[in-house]
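Comment thread on ticket #2218

A.B. wrote:
> Attaching the input chain for the structure job we discussed in standup.
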Amino acid sequence: MRSVRRIRFADFPYACVLVISPHPDDSVLGCGGLVFKLTSHRETRSRVKITVFTMTPGYHGVDSDFFREGAAVGRENLLRWPGVPHTELEDDCRLMAALRDCLGDDFDVYSKPGESDQKKLENIIRTAIRFGECCREVETLGLPPASALRFLALPRLYSKCICPGELVRLRHELSQAADEGECNLLLVPHPDDPQPAHQAVTEATLRALDPALKWHIWYYPSPWYRMPPCAIDAIVPLNDEELYRKRAAAETHRSQTIRTPYGKYVMSGASLNADILPELLLGFGGRCTNAFGKYCEVFQMRLPSFYTCSQGQSDLVICADDILPIDAELAGD
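C.D. wrote:
> Ran it. Output below, let me know if you need it in another format.
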């Protein structure tokens, strides 16, 4: 049985939390519960700065039917991302010129070689649709999009190409969002996640970190990768309100949920964690079920012994203030 250590939110040790989302909806699926706990808890909502980084455009995830339905809204979103003037929206030729100015060299990467500029325009509008969904997600989780969302939409990284120019930009963005003197928590997809864009984003992010800053890194799971119990280092119990808020935030990504019921994934995944992990992590034959509560998120810490100087297996960290069934379990030992 692993030893258990509690982190209460009054003692949450990170000044900044940086959430890395390969596609526009991955952040909420992996760690939306922890984000909402931090924004809603009286001890952390004003003290801990949270920034969500949307790393790739995600336009492949908007199918033709949804594009036809949302194209007008997508055009309006171009005013906020990438920031075209309102006067250029109605005429495609002027809009294309404005997008070239706003996106620079990235403009030509929004379609395959040989495809028309009209295809580029459609993919950029698809990206703007997903930008709007990201704004609604972070609002649902209690964050102001204007300051908490960094919609980077790196088009080369979307093609699983890690290029120096995008790494330089990413390092600048991460460093701006981090605290120079205090420790920063980076939440990023697990490197064993089989989704290719997730792998590329995690690799690029780790390469881009400024070594002069203090980083702790937690990996989060996804619908495509569930961590083996032996890899789990941190558990974040969720109550009903927190889980339902996470589900609501996931369902703001309508371009995705019309295809895959991610709201159901949020509910079932958190419930399954709570049902099976107590015995797998604390030892079989425990005296109580749902030791971590009704629902929970899980994380793996990257190389915790490097930061704690501990020997052997590290503690299992539980981020919670609420009284949990595990408290009675531990009191009985």
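A.B. wrote:
> Thanks. Noting for the ticket: The chain is about 45% helix and 15% strand.
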